[in-house]
């Protein structure tokens, strides 16, 4: 599954994958969450090599989750909720400081979850921007409001440098490969509430279990 060499097709397809994440009783399916992230990584890779260090970390996190999902206890890793319950019940999570479970599903997913908030904020800015909106500014504002708070200085610095060379809005829309700008805006308007739902449900579940600061 991790040798997925298929090319990025369209951001619509990627965002559609996130739509599949929510079960009827509002649990988050890991399979679709991971598939959504795979698509995002392909998208990042189309934005230029400077995004390499960003996508590399996401790829690592995806790999860790897939290893859990395909491992002998894979049946516990169907939804975020079942994963959290299983890992907590079996003391498989380092709760306060890094220890013997540096690759727990819970702490790994938390990193992607925080990054999803960045994506949500960024795409929302993009959706409401006008023709001369600067993607680099939208991206760094979204980052500063979300993920940056969890990153050390070095990572913030490197991320800031990557944002500076983001393609401008027209080229960015082209890479998204959704169609003319009106269609991109409409697609985002449809997809963003669902991404937001996935984010909020995960956030609340992690908060209930006091797991928003896992080391
Ligand atoms: C243009 C749209 C952008 C949205 C894609 C978001 C991708 C997010 C990946 C950010 C990764 C930055 C470099 C890695 C930092 C890691 O140290 C950090 N990982 C994340 C995902 O924040 C924390 O992981 P760690 O070191 O605690 O294992």
Automatic annotation (TrEMBL):
InterPro entries: GLTP_sf, Glycolipid_transfer_prot_dom. Pfam families: GLTP. It is found in: Cell membrane; Cytoplasm, Cytosol; Endosome membrane; Golgi apparatus, trans-Golgi network membrane. It is a peripheral membrane protein. Keywords: Cell membrane, Cytoplasm, Endosome, Golgi apparatus, Lipid transport, Lipid-binding, Membrane, Nucleus, Transport. Belongs to the GLTP family. This is Ceramide-1-phosphate transfer protein.
């Amino acid at each position: 599954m991790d040798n997925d060499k298929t090319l990025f097709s369209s951001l619509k397809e990627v965002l559609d994958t996130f739509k599949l994440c929510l079960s009827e009783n509002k649990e988050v399916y890991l399979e679709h969450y991971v598939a959504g992230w795979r698509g995002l990584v392909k998208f990042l890779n189309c934005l230029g090599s400077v995004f390499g260090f960003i996508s590399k970390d996401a790829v690592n996190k995806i790999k860790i989750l897939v290893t859990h999902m395909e491992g002998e206890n894979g049946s516990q890793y169907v939804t975020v909720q079942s994963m959290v319950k299983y890992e907590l019940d079996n003391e498989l999570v380092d709760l306060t400081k890094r220890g013997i479970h540096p690759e727990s599903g819970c702490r790994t997913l938390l990193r992607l979850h925080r990054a999803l908030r960045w994506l949500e904020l960024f795409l929302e800015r993009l959706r409401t921007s006008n023709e001369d909106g600067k993607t680099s500014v939208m991206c760094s504002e979204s980052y500063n409001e979300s993920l940056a708070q969890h990153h050390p200085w070095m990572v913030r610095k490197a991320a800031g440098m990557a944002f500076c060379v983001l393609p401008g809005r027209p080229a960015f829309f082209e890479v998204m490969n959704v169609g003319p700008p009106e269609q991109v805006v409409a697609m985002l308007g449809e997809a963003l509430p669902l991404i937001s739902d996935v984010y909020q449900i995960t956030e609340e579940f992690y908060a209930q279990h006091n797991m928003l600061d896992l080391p």
